[in-house]
Design brief:
The complex is a heterodimer of chains A (304) and B (377).
Chain A: E1 3-14, E2 17-28, E3 31-35, H1 42-49, E4 57-62, E5 65-66, H2 71-77, E6 78-81, H3 93-104, H4 108-122, H5 137-149, E7 155-159, H6 167-182, E8 187-191, H7 195-201, E9 204-209, E10 212-218, H8 219-222, E11 225-234, H9 239-247, E12 251-255, E13 258-262, H10 270-278, E14 283-290, H11 293-303
Chain B: H1 21-34, H2 37-46, H3 48-64, H4 82-86, H5 92-118, H6 121-128, H7 132-136, H8 142-176, H9 180-213, H10 217-257, H11 265-294, H12 304-316, H13 318-326, H14 331-341, H15 348-371
Helix pairs in contact in B: 1-8, 2-5, 3-5, 3-8, 5-8, 5-9, 5-12, 5-13, 6-9, 8-9, 9-10, 9-12, 9-15, 10-11, 11-14, 12-15
The chains are: A alpha/beta (304), B mainly alpha (377).
């Protein structure tokens, strides 16, 4: 599989603080979620990828380019949506996006044409001639997205793109990010604290903590199936069923109308059917339990 | 499902090279600047001296050709010596130089105000709207960013200094219908362009440095105004105080040469003649002393605009022109002529050193201020 980026023993310090600590990782192309608590090194990693800061040691590549030597080429191939509210002042929407294109090296004509197209794509077609200072937070975020994709980058980096947005705005951004990465073939790095957002957009996650790699992998793999844990829903009152299982040494937890059952060693999942038969209960739903991304994240951080 | 969903389209165009990336910033800045009504009106106003320059050069071209049509306009040139009007081609270089010198001197003050309108927003607004991450996450080096911003100031200054100087030159050439004018005065045009660029780079970089110090363009504007106009005032006051001291000393000497007045009218007349002669000699000595003092006077260095003017005079060779024109005067009038027309004559390189120091300081401030900000939070 083609690598999106690769770090080999990368260390970056700010005085006494070590932001990246001998970080080694390889990330495949596709939609990648970047997770980690505050101060975990996510932003430093993005800065390093864009060649904005020199690292103390280590090597690496992004899109096949050495991130320390080919900074400008990298920035040409990458679109970046910063977290903070940032604007080119005194412009209207279409000028803003066109200017962003010109800064990357597009001709004025191409940049203007693409600006109209990308504004339509992100749903700001109606507001293209409005001053950007009058845009709402959600519109500004979509504007930044349009200006990041105006030159059709190979990789799009979104830093906390849904922060401070209303639910509809959040959904819009997630849909756009998902469409770009899954339908248009654009690789994506999606840095966010909001795990459902990452889960909705990305196929692969990288969890950082203290400048080190805590875990990484495809979301499907990380959310592994637990062979001895099951989610069970019954037709009738579940309490006698739960009591019986507990008496046999099973771990049982009631969650609304769902029972989370952990079968002890020495028993098979058939035990559930036997107890149901014994109590004349109907099992309406039975599924092996999967970890949520939140659990994956918390486990990774706790194991540090 | 829509029949035709345009959605996102890939783009297959080519991106331009790195060398001209700064031009995108300049182009955008000029576009935004020209949207302002105040700016447009001010640019028109600032072109007024250029119209006068063009008019004077055209008249001079007609004078050189001894055209009939110009005879009615000779009144405008009555301030010139009859020798000059009799042989205008002999004084072509001096007249062109002085016209250009006057034009650039006036435009310098227009430029200071123009920079005040254009400059304060250039970086401070980027800081206020947090635009630096948008710039530096694109293939842009800091030098491209600075060059682009400096290009905005240069473009506006060129509109009121360099372009009118070139247009004026071309029209002057056309009206004189003499190709030798190119040989004689090309240096003036070149010096005007270089001087325009010196102002643009020096004042532009200084304004950018000030603009990078604050998120408020108002403070930047006030700082610029303060630096320019307080500098002018302070240099003027200190210069006047210094000159008054010398004048006072001169007056004391004048009083000393006055002998006791005789009661005899004939003798008194002789006494008065001698007194007048002695006072005239003292006055000449005073003027010569003033010229000499001017050559060592550091006070104008306090004024930023005076430094620019002094470098401009050197580039254009204004003093040489006044010296040449002073030869048309009698020997005892020459000092007064030079004293009245040529400005302070301290070494031009003093001003150049001050400007170079300010340039270095501005570059250092920009380097420090923008380096600490081209990061992503």
């Amino acid at each position: 599989m083609q690598m999106l980026f690769h770090f080999e023993d990368v260390t970056k310090t700010y005085g006494a603080v070590t932001a990246l600590n001998n970080l080694t990782l390889s990330v495949p192309e596709g939609a990648v979620g970047l997770l980690g608590p505050n101060g975990s090194g996510k932003t430093t990693m993005i800065r390093s990828l864009l060649g904005l800061i020199p690292v103390d040691k280590g090597t690496g590549e992004i899109l096949g380019m050495d991130f320390q030597r080919r900074r400008l080429e990298i920035r040409r191939a990458v679109g970046f949506v910063p977290e903070d509210e940032c604007l080119f002042p005194r412009t209207v929407g279409v000028e803003f996006v066109g200017y962003a294109g010109e800064l990357v090296g597009m001709s004025s004509k191409d940049a203007l044409q693409r600006a109209h197209e990308t504004l339509d794509y992100v749903g700001l077609g109606e507001a293209r001639y409005r001053k950007v200072e009058t845009y709402s937070t959600g519109m500004k975020q979509r504007l930044k997205l349009a200006s990041a994709i105006v030159h059709d980058p190979k990789l799009l980096i979104l830093d906390e793109p849904t922060n401070g947005m209303d639910p509809q705005g959040r959904v819009d951004i997630i849909e756009l990010a998902r469409d770009l990465s899954h339908q248009k073939g654009m690789s994506l790095i999606f840095s966010s604290h909001l795990l459902p957002d990452v889960e909705a957009v990305c196929d692969h996650v990288v969890v950082l903590g203290g400048g080190k790699l805590l875990t990484q992998g495809s979301i499907q793999q990380l959310k592994q199936v637990h062979n001895r844990c099951f989610e069970v829903r019954l037709k009738n009152d579940a309490k006698p069923f739960a009591r019986r299982l507990a008496a046999l040494g099973c771990g049982v937890e009631m969650r609304d109308d769902l029972l989370l059952v952990q079968i002890p060693e020495g028993h098979s999942p058939n035990l559930l059917w036997e107890i149901a038969s014994e109590q004349r209960q109907q099992i309406r739903y039975l599924r092996p339990q999967r970890s949520t991304l939140e659990e994956v994240f918390l486990n990774a951080v706790e194991e540090r | 499902m829509p029949i035709f969903d345009q959605g996102y389209q890939h783009w297959n165009g080519t991106l331009g090279g790195q060398g001209w990336r700064w031009l995108a910033i300049t182009r955008h800045g000029v576009r935004v600047g020209m949207k302002s009504l105040v700016m447009r009106i001010y640019l028109l106003l600032a072109l007024a001296p250029a119209l006068v320059l063009v008019f004077m050069l055209c008249i001079w071209g007609l004078v050189e050709r001894k055209a009939e049509s110009v005879s009615s306009l000779m009144g405008i040139l009555s301030f010139l010596q009859p020798e000059i009007l009799a042989h205008p081609q002999h004084f072509r270089v001096e007249i062109w130089t002085l016209f250009y010198s006057q034009f650039l001197q006036i435009e310098l003050y227009f430029s200071i105000v123009l920079i005040l309108i254009v400059g304060p927003n250039l970086i401070s607004q980027d800081l206020r709207f947090n635009a630096l991450p948008l710039y530096f996450s694109r293939p842009l080096r800091r030098i491209d960013y600075f060059a682009g911003k400096l290009g905005i100031i240069t473009a506006f200054l060129a509109m009121v200094m360099i372009v009118p100087a070139i247009v004026g030159y071309a029209l002057g050439l056309l009206f004189s219908l003499d190709i030798t004018i190119l040989r004689d005065t090309f240096r003036v045009l070149l010096a005007s362009i270089v001087y325009g660029l010196v102002i643009a780079v020096s004042a532009g970089l200084l304004m950018l440095a000030m603009s990078s110090l604050s998120r408020s363009s108002r403070y930047t504007a006030l700082f610029w105004l303060g630096m320019c106009f307080l500098g002018i005032s302070l240099a003027f006051v200190l210069g006047q105080v210094n000159q008054e001291q010398r004048r006072h000393q001169y007056h004391r000497q004048m009083m000393n040469v006055r002998p006791p007045i005789s009661q005899d009218p004939a003798e008194r007349r002789i006494q008065m003649r001698e007194l007048q002669r002695a006072q005239g000699k003292l006055e000449d000595e005073f003027r010569a002393a003033e010229l000499h003092a001017g050559e060592r006077d550091w006070r104008p260095l306090i004024s930023y605009t005076a430094n620019l003017e002094r470098v401009g005079e050197h580039l254009l060779g204004t003093r040489k022109c006044w010296d040449r024109l002073s030869l048309l005067k009698s020997a005892d009038e020459r000092d007064r002529f030079i004293y009245d027309h040529a400005g302070p004559q301290y070494p031009w390189y003093w001003s150049a050193i001050v400007l170079a120091a300010l340039f270095g300081l501005s570059a250092w401030i920009l380097n420090v201020r923008v380096r600490s900000l081209d990061r992503l939070k």
